[in-house]
Amino acid sequence: MKKQQQAPEKIAVLIAEDSEVDRNLLRDAFAELDFDISLIFVGDGQELFDYLRRTNAFASMDPAPLPALILMDLNMPRMKGLDALQALRADALLRALPVIVLSTSSNPRQIAEAYASGVNAYMTKPAQFSELLDAMKKFGDFWLGVSKLPDPLAWAPHARPAGT
Predict the structure, then answer these.
(1) How far apart are CA 147 and CA 8, in angstroms?
(2) Domain containing residue 72: CATH number
(3) Does residue 16 fall inside a structural domain?
(4) CA dihedral defined by 79, 85, 91, 94, rounded to 10 degrees?
(5) How many structural domains does the chain have?
(6) Does the residue 19 lie in any domain?
(7) Which one-letter DSSP state was computed for residue 149?
(8) How far is CA 70 from CA 2, 5, 67, 128, 161, in A?
(9) What residues make up the domain containing 44?
(10) Among 128, 116, 29, which Cα is nearest to 71's?
(11) pLDDT in tens, 128-139
């Protein structure tokens, strides 16, 4: 008897972005590109940690899915992107998460600080939707295709769905 295989789960991408306009543009770009992913949006660094730790507004959520990677703006209210990045890298459970910055800033000092804080890649937000589409295609081809992402269940056993 042949064992029935389950379809692989979609890759969860957590996007920390405070701008509703930018969230909608990202949502539209990923929809047009048709990557097999699940997008999860939070509005700032504090919500990012609330989601990852399932606290506050996310307390009643199931532990899964933890994201396979984070796409994050730097200039956000409450907890800024660099503060969130530094806190992620200091957290033994969350430090394995790949973090890609998507920011309007192309300031060399800010880029250097992001890399020094442990960012995996830094992208500047394009001004036009066609450029965003091209950038997200390249992002997806590499991060969702070529690279091997860590399995959240391998480094975050609390994220394992009940019964597994």
Answers:
(1) 17
(2) 3.40.50.2300
(3) yes
(4) 110
(5) 1
(6) yes
(7) P
(8) 37, 28, 7, 22, 20
(9) 11-150
(10) 29
(11) 999 999 999 999
